[in-house]
Design brief:
341 residues, homodimer, globular, 27% helix, 10-stranded antiparallel β-sheet, alpha+beta, 3-stranded mixed β-sheet
Chain lengths: 341, 341
C-alpha cells in the first residue's frame, strides 16, 4: 500500500509510491561514456588566466599556497539589475517592481574539472566562506530582502557552464515559498513555543531511521516527506534562523559535511546532476526563534511531470529510509572506494 | 531593466528578465532528425489489438464510424491503491494517510503516432468527454477529495510511453497548491465580491495584450506573471468553479480550442514537449463563487534550476506579450502551414 506523507514545513503531501518502489541503487546514473573534462579550458571565462572574460570581481579567497580558491564575480547575464531602486507599481490589478537586485557567480576553484565532491574539505570551506561574506555584505543593502544561494551541477540541473560554480541572487521581495515556510514555522512556535526544525532534528536523531550523518555542528538527513529520491537536508544543530549567523568554526565543519555528502552522491550514484540551495530566513528576520536555516541538496534523478505541476504533489518512488541507509553506507572519497573495491 | 511581476492567484513573484530576453522563435525546438513514429506498434499496450495488455477498461468512447476514439484503463503502475480506506495516522509529529486513490490512463486514440495537435477537433472533444465522465464518476467516491487530470507529452515532460495518452490521479487529500489558490481566490471574493478569475478575464480581453484567441465559450491567454516561456491558460468565459460543471456544448468548443492551441505550439515551435493539467476546484467545493477552473498548458522549453527550487521564484526570458503575439500569428494546422509556406 502506498503512503501519503505530509511535509510539516510546507503542509505539502507527498505520495511515497511503495508499490512502484525502486531500490536506491536502481537510480544510479547510467552515463554514456563521456570524455573527462580537461583541468583547463582556454575559452572558459572562469579558468585562471581568463579573468578578463569574467567582469567585475567582488571577492577572492586564497588558499594557504597563495593561489585563489574562490572568486566571486558579477553574472554576465544577470537576471536582475544592480542599479536603480525597486519601485513598486500598482496599475489596475497588476503588481510590478523594477527588477533591481544582484546576480553573482561564485567560481569554486581554478580547476575546470574538479567538482565539489572531489575537492579537499577545506577548499569547500573556502567556497562556503565566500557565500557567507557575500551574504553579509549584500544583506546590508536596504533594497534587498532575500538572498538565495544555489548551485546547478549538470545539464539536468540547469547548469550551462562546465567550470564548477555556484550563484547568488538577491531580490527586493520575499518569495512566496520562503514566506510560506516562515509562516508555518511561526504557527508551530505560537502553539508549542519551540522551533519546529529543532524539534524535528531531536526527533530524527532519536529515531535514527533517516539520518545520514551527524557531525559536531550539523546533521544530514532525508526528510520524512521527501518529494524526490535522495533529496537531502543539512541542518545546523544549534538554533540559527539566518545563514548570516553561522560561525567560522561551523563553516569549517560544514565544508567537511557538505563535501562528504556530495562525495557519497558522486561515488554512490555515479555523479548525478544535482542542485543545492541555502534556505535561510530573510535578512530582516535574522534572529527569529521559529525558523532554522538549512541546505537542501536535490539530485535530479527523475523528471517533474504533469501531476506534480498540476497538483503540487510529488510522487517519490524511493523510501527516504532506504535512501538514508544507502547514503550512510556509500563511500565518500576515492580512497574509500579503492579500499572497498 | 528586468521586471518583477506578481501572480495574483498564488502571490508568487516572477522575474521577467528582459535583459536576457529571447524572441519567442528562438525557443523553437531544434530536434535531431528523428524517425517518425509508426502508426501501430505490436508491443504497445495502447495499440488496437493489444487491449489484453492494458488491464481493466473503465470507459470507451467511439466515433461515428463505430471505432473507439478514447479508452480509459487502470494504470498498470498505479501511484495509489484503488482498494482500502484512506486512514489517517498521527504519530508524534508524523502525519500519514494510506495511499488510497485512483490512477487511470486515457488512451487518446488507436493511432500510435497521432499527437493531439494533429487530431480532428471532434476527436479531441471525445478525449475531453472521457475526462469529464471519469471526473464525474470518481468525484462521487467519498474517499476522494481531489481529481487531477494531466498530460505528459515528450520525455522532457515526463512521458515514458509513446502512444498518445493522458492520466487521472484521484487523491484523498487536497494538495497545498490547490488549497493555496482557493484561499487567495476566497480572499479576493471576500474583499471585492467577485471571482478573481472572471475579473482578470474581463481585464485581459479589454487590454488585449496577452490574449491568444477567444472562442464562443473560452479564452486562451498568456498569464501576466507567466513563470515559463509559453505557459498558456484556457479559461471558460462563463463562471464555473468545477470542471464537472462543463456542458457538452462547451466541451465541443473546448475540443476545438485546445486542439488549435496545441496545433499552434506544434507548428510554431516544432512539437515542443509539454504538460497540460486541468486546475479545478475540489469536488467538495463545486459551485463556489470565487474559484474558476481552467487548463494550464506548460511547454517544457527551459529547465528548472537551483534558484527556482530554492526560492520558488521563476525567471522567464520571454515576455508574455511577445509569446501571445507569436501564438496569435502561428499556424494551427497543416493546411495553413502549406498555404503559408
Amino acid at each position: 500500500m502506498p503512503e501519503l506523507r505530509q511535509n510539516r514545513f510546507t503542509k505539502e503531501w507527498v505520495i511515497i509510491a511503495t508499490e512502484r518502489a525502486k531500490r536506491p541503487e536502481e537510480l544510479k546514473v547510467n552515463r554514456p561514456e563521456v570524455k573527462p573534462l580537461p583541468s583547463y579550458s582556454p575559452t572558459c571565462p572562469f579558468c585562471p588566466g581568463n579573468e578578463q572574460l569574467a567582469p567585475t570581481e567582488f571577492l577572492r579567497i586564497n588558499g594557504p599556497d597563495g593561489k585563489w580558491r574562490a572568486r566571486v564575480v558579477a553574472n554576465k547575464f544577470a537576471a536582475l539589475s544592480r542599479e536603480g531602486e525597486p519601485t513598486r507599481k500598482v496599475e489596475k490589478s497588476k503588481r510590478t517592481i523594477n527588477g533591481v537586485g544582484m546576480h553573482e557567480v561564485i567560481i569554486e576553484g581554478p580547476n575546470h574539472a574538479l567538482t565539489t565532491a572531489l575537492l579537499p574539505d577545506d577548499h569547500v570551506t573556502s567556497i562556503l566562506t565566500a557565500y557567507k561574506l557575500r551574504y553579509d555584505e549584500i544583506s546590508r543593502d536596504p533594497r534587498i530582502t532575500q538572498v538565495t544561494i544555489f548551485k546547478n551541477h549538470g545539464t539536468a540541473a540547469g547548469a550551462s557552464l562546465e567550470h564548477p560554480h555556484s550563484q547568488l541572487i538577491a531580490a527586493p521581495v520575499i518569495s512566496h515559498q520562503v514566506r510560506d515556510r516562515m509562516f508555518e514555522a511561526l504557527r508551530h512556535y505560537d502553539e508549542f513555543g519551540e522551533c519546529i526544525f529543532c524539534q524535528m532534528i531531536a526527533e530524527e536523531i532519536d529515531e535514527n531511521a533517516r539520518v545520514v550523518m551527524v557531525t559536531d555542528h550539523f546533521v544530514v538527513l532525508e526528510p520524512f516527506a521527501s518529494p524526490t529520491p535522495f533529496t537531502t537536508h543539512i541542518y545546523p544543530r544549534r538554533h540559527m534562523a539566518s545563514f548570516g549567523d553561522v560561525s567560522m568554526e561551523e563553516l569549517a565543519d560544514l565544508g567537511h559535511t557538505l563535501r562528504t555528502l556530495l562525495g557519497k552522491l558522486y561515488f554512490g550514484l555515479d555523479d548525478p546532476d544535482f542542485n543545492y540551495t541555502v534556505r535561510t530566513a530573510p535578512s530582516e528576520n535574522a534572529g527569529v526563534k521559529y525558523y532554522h536555516w538549512h541546505i537542501s541538496v536535490i539530485p535530479r534523478l527523475t523528471r517533474v511531470a504533469g501531476f506534480e505541476l498540476g497538483s503540487g504533489m510529488f510522487i517519490n518512488t524511493v523510501l527516504p529510509e532506504a535512501a538514508a541507509e544507502f547514503l550512510r553506507n556509500a563511500n565518500a572519497d576515492k580512497a574509500s572506494v579503492e579500499k572497498a573495491g
